[in-house]
Write a structure and sequence with these properties.
Immunoglobulin-like; Jelly Rolls; 418 residues; six-stranded mixed sheet; binds copper (II) ion; 8 helices; alpha+beta
Amino acid sequence: MRRWLLSGILTLLVTCFSVAQAFAHGEAADEPFLKDLTVAFYNVHVSPTSITVGQPVTITGSLKILETWPYTLDPPVTAYITPVVPGPVFALVDREVNGQPAFGSITVERGGTYDFKMVMRGRNPGRWHVHPGIAIQGTGTLIGPGEWVTVSPSDTPFKLNVMLLNGTTVDLEHFGGGFVWWWSFAGFIVGLVWMIYWTVPKRTVTRLAVTSQLGANDDAPDIGLITREDHKWMNVLAAITILMLVGGWAWMAAKYPVRLPQQTDRFAPTLDTSSYHLAEVRPVGSPNNATFDEKTNTLTISLDVKNTGTQPIMLKQYSMAMATFVNGSQQELAEAGPHDFVGSLQVEPPDPIPAGQTRRVVLKMASPIFDEERLIPLHDPQQLIAGLLAVRDNVGREERVTVKSVLVPTEFQAQYLP
Ligand SMILES: [Cu+2]
């Protein structure tokens, strides 16, 4: 028995101290529906990918809040587009959504497309995985594709200068830091004294079996539980706390006579309304129009695509959650987004669809990302996926159409479907 216990403890210790660095952001833990049916990211770019402390990195890209947003989640109303990085290793200095400065949260709607641009400056040296993300109230943060950014140390220490209304410039990195630290510490000491007073020399906690028998307002002086002396010292502590609060308010009013409440500006970014419409897309097949082969990580989607424009169209991309699949050259693949989140898209038949015609097409994508990021629902109550199909015409116009598909894994299909 003892030997088992010993080896168990040893194994635990070894596992605790030999943990490899974590690389992902935990997004694989999210259910597939939470990624697929909510938001699709595309055209994401993070550059440059190598800077020194203090230099800027820009994240650009687009996301669409899909019309397929699940009814099981709160409707998307208040959201916040943000860089997702491991801790405060960058400082966000600028953000635009659909060309408008967005300091805080925005209001969003189903079907809305949001182009974002965020500039942040390197704060801590290291190699960091940088994603764009959208935090949606009631749902959580949904993240886009990530890129590695190396921040090298710099000779000049990091500074975050901002100009105040009175014209003076302060460095936010250190502004008021010493005072905040010591003031919080003073408050902590008062609490610590209170805690030690009641736990170390007293029996209130150590003899809980006795004290729990007493009434709520019983000081139990007969057994020496709470004495007059205790009341005196607690009054002293309460007085110190009140003095600190009053002193703090008075000091703030004297030292910073000009104050403004923290500002918020919550607005609905102007949505781009397209003047043209290139395609209508309908899923084909019953009961399902999509399959997923777990052995080869291959997603296949069957669709009827109608060209509603005036020029021949090509099916160029399919974006799903944080992944984008591209029908094109190696260069087009490289330009579509962060390398680890881009795959190739095979369209059958491959030639353009003439204006006015409807064509039955099969989209095929094979990538380990389906498994790594857990994008495919395999045993869910709703076997649904959704993504954006990008079509482009001869004159370079582009449209992204939301496609919702019913998916059955091939293994099931082979067993149960005709
Ligand atoms: Cu990451």
